[in-house]
Design goal:
- About 15% of the residues lie in helices and about 30% in strands.
- The chain is built from four helices and 15 strands.
- The strands form five sheets. The chain has a four-stranded mixed sheet. It has a four-stranded antiparallel sheet with strand order 13-12-11-15, with no helix packed on it.
- The radius of gyration is 18 Å and the shape is globular.
């Protein structure tokens, strides 16, 4: 039986994630505290791993109960702690010093700052998929792959690439529930440069994208909607969550059920 095995949220977009046993749906259809904050430069552009691999050299841990973040540069052991809601000026100064240019931090408690505005719900992958991909690359563990692909929800009790049944042909969606929360599966997630780098150092992994795409194509389940793959550097599923689901909770152990079956 498919069930929710793992939940990860990323309180500050592009920084380290935080594992939790339960979460709640926001008004905008995201997981509470996921990408609730984001860093911006003086031109109003989001600072992320696509733009600078220096993001990988930041370590962050969170205490959501008191909205605290503890930050550390990878190069030293000194930590600094800030309240995300009340220490904004000090936070911006710390990040500005780290990146070497002016940084501001913004908050959106309703929807956060998703990568895909047309599929702004949590991303979903199967535990077995990560296990399979770990066999494609010498020296890469499941933990390393979790850090590289940064997926919100991980599904257990299923075969590799089970998540590929959570979307359909272009223009269609797949309706499913995790616990009591109603989701729409939109399509396979197109990956960026971030997974090609060591998540802790920013160092590029040679031929990562080429090897991944070849293996992904060869491992594709026969029932997958091939029309959704103009290339094979895609992994995990983008989703939407209905506005009616705001306030509902999900927790690890919740069953995943595809509706209509």
């Amino acid at each position: 039986m498919a069930y929710l095995e793992r939940i990860t949220v990323f309180p500050i977009k592009s920084l380290d994630g935080m594992h939790t046993s339960h979460s709640c749906i926001t008004k905008g259809g995201s997981l509470i505290f996921d990408r609730e904050f984001a860093l911006f430069d003086k031109k109003g552009k989001i600072i992320n791993g696509k733009r600078t691999n220096k993001v990988h050299l930041l370590r962050a841990s969170f205490d959501p109960k008191v909205c605290m973040v503890t930050l550390r540069a990878q190069s030293n052991d000194k930590t600094e702690q800030f309240n995300l809601r009340t220490d904004q000026a000090a936070l911006e100064a710390w990040f500005s010093d780290f990146f070497g240019f002016g940084v501001s931090i913004k908050q959106d408690i309703h929807a956060g700052f998703p990568d895909d505005l047309n599929a702004s719900g949590p991303t979903i992958i199967s535990t077995a998929t990560l296990q399979e991909i770990s066999t494609w690359f010498e020296g890469l563990s499941m933990h390393d792959l979790r850090l590289r692909f940064r997926t919100n929800l991980e599904i257990g009790g299923v075969q590799p690439f089970f998540e590929d049944c959570l979307y359909d042909k272009p223009g269609s969606v797949v309706q499913f529930k995790i616990g009591e929360v109603h989701f729409e599966g939109i399509g396979p997630c197109q990956r960026c440069i971030v997974p090609t780098r060591n998540p802790l150092t920013g160092e590029y992994t040679p031929r990562f994208k080429t090897i991944f795409a070849k293996k992904r194509k060869n491992a594709m389940p026969y029932w997958v909607q091939a029309s959704r793959f103009d290339h094979f550097y895609r992994l995990a599923v983008n989703t939407n969550i209905f506005p009616s689901e705001a306030g509902k909770k999900i927790k690890t152990g919740d069953a995943l059920k595809i509706l209509g079956f």
